[in-house]
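The methods section describes the discrete structure representation at length, but only in general terms. An entry of this sort, consisting of the sequence and the corresponding backbone structure tokens, reads as follows.
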Amino acid sequence: MANLLDGMSKSFNAVESGDIDHGRRRFVEGVAISAAAAATLSFLPKHAAAATENSAIRPFRINVSEDQLVDLRRRIGATRWPDRETVNGPSQGVQLAQFQELVRYWGTDYDWRKAEAKLNALPQFVTMIDDVDIHFIHVRSRHPNALPIVISHGWPGSVIEQLKLIGPLTDPTAHGGRAEDAFDVVIPSLPGYGFSGRPTGTGWDPDRIARAWAELMKRLGYTRYVAQGGDWGAPVASAMARQGASGLLGIHINLPASVPPEVAAALGGGPVPAQLSEKERAVLDALMTNAKKGNSAYFTMMTARPQTVGYGAADSPAGLAAWILVHPGFAQWAYGNDPEKSPTKDDVLDNITLYWLTNTAASAARLYWENGARGSVIVAAAQKTSEISLPVAITVFPDDVYRAPEAWARRAYRNLIYFNEVDKGGHFAAWEQPELFSVELRAAFRSLR
């Protein structure tokens, strides 16, 4: 056990400054694990620490076998390619030439071990909630009175998407911020995603995930905290606020459910409201154009038949990568041609490889099916925003698939305490603009500290 804690504390110190005793004390706080359980920690959390009590928080470390990586490269090398698209541009899907270049790099020069080392340098844990193992990263700030925050990813993301936030949030003074703006950061993997367990039954919709996150923060001993989410993380954070999770002070979202009823009706084929402002009409037109171009086809398919999607994505690395890259959030991504621009080629392949190694293409897609009856994640009525009384903060990023007008946001959220439109960033804003995203979180939650 001493050896385990020694090694884990070294990893902790790689991401948090401060003296060793302080780091070790912070790291093991709240952890319950026996030496026997420690010896069983392995790549998939469902196999780890089976003998511990369900409520225990167990240290977690990734250890992908070399055989798995050899098999991945073999499968990539054996890819059977389709013929080239018959149009110029991506209207038929991911374009063959640039995609082949990315996949060939994946099979030859890409190194998963770098991603594995990066994750293992962070304090990672697993705890069972509602019969599903939940994997999470938990990094405490060295600054006193840091505000705890739980950050939720979406599809086709993972905890990889939020890694570049950890430094700016936990150590703001090293990133142009103030010590009093520091956060303790909790980043869970959604059920069915990454290193979290794959639910074997139905019911894991955003509302249930929200209750699990509230339980997670309770187990970590947090009595005051905030929540953040984009993509699926937005419905999860919103559900936490709607449910009045104990200790939750407020939420920040970057994909707000703010489309009002008359606009939702127009999107469904009804008349266009006559009273829209020029900006509101532009947003409506953009949403209509997005639908006509089929940019939400992935959403429709996974909502209807996630299992069917899973067969090809679980069997073919190229099929998995193409399915992930069809997301409109990647529309402006240049396949990592600029190594200084986030996300890089390796960043995106880290994320795709995580899906492959954990075989979570189907289990991740089921979240769409679970949400099916609720409907659109951007429609206010569908997400019951009128029931949210806790403070809500919103940042709008210009290249996102939906750019919420402030007027709609104020109609949807009665306690909107912060609204800002920034000048850069898209759907994967935390990944694309981590410093700006961190600045937004500091400003959004400053009044709640």
About this structure: Residues 2-62+117-259+376-448 form a domain with the Rossmann fold fold (CATH 3.40.50.1820). Residues 278-292 form the longest helix (15 residues). The CA atoms of residues 148 and 222 lie 7 Å apart. The mean pLDDT is 90.
